[in-house]
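re: ur question from yesterday

yeah so i grabbed the chain u mentioned. its 258 aa long if i counted rite. heres the sequnce exactly as i have it in my notes:
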Amino acid sequence: MTPLERAIVMLKATPDDSTRFSAVVERLADTEVFMAVEAATSEAEVTPKTVWLLAQEYVAIYDTELRLAESVGGKAEYLSVSGRALVQMLAGQDTGIALNPGTNAIGYVFEPKTLQWLAQSLDERPSAIAQQITQVSPPPALTPKALDALSVKLTAAQGLAEYACLVEATDAENHKNPMLCFVGLVPDAQADLAKLVQEYLQFSEQDGAPWDVTYLSPDHGMVQKLLKVGLRFDLPVPEVAVERPAPGTIPGQPPILR
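ran it thru and got these structure tokens back, copy pasting raw so excuse formatting
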């Protein structure tokens, strides 16, 4: 069962739980999905295969290649793309997303309004604030659900840092906030990691609570102090990329969906 499926199963058990709905849309954003496409007419434009449900059009996506093959009955041209990129491509097109249609796998329907809201949430950027930290202490207690959600979210940071450490930080004005410090050798990744933490706060039971995010090299003098009092999260090591021929794969330029 994929992480997206698990989130959907948990939501179906308690459909009125808003935090579990938030977990589903968050998993969609973080998941690599496979979208069957019509024969590509150019490198920059593709036409996704769609399904119609109650007079509403939905782009068909699958959370594994095997499920895509099960649905189309064999080989098919497809596009592999992150859920967040697909949501942003579909924003404003009055098109929803249908997960795993035509298969025996767990499915779900994301309505156009949900995708519009998600696209707007993903576009929000965290504020950059420089404050001098005067003290670090053990982090505030998080519920098991919040810790699990944070661990899952941090898997999206693979390759951007070696590990993260959660502490409570006190600044020069005596403000106390949770602070997540990433340790590694990719300091340019700090903006992406701050955005990742912001999304965790948006979609979790933290309900947008203020957290600070920083990035340190492994030999920084503060690292050992953080590790003594903080909660460490080891990040996954990137896998070797496998080339997949797919239409519309221009680096940095997602294809236009027709």
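noticed a couple things. The first strand starts at residue 32 and ends at 36. also The two ends are 31 Å apart (CA to CA).
anyway ttyl
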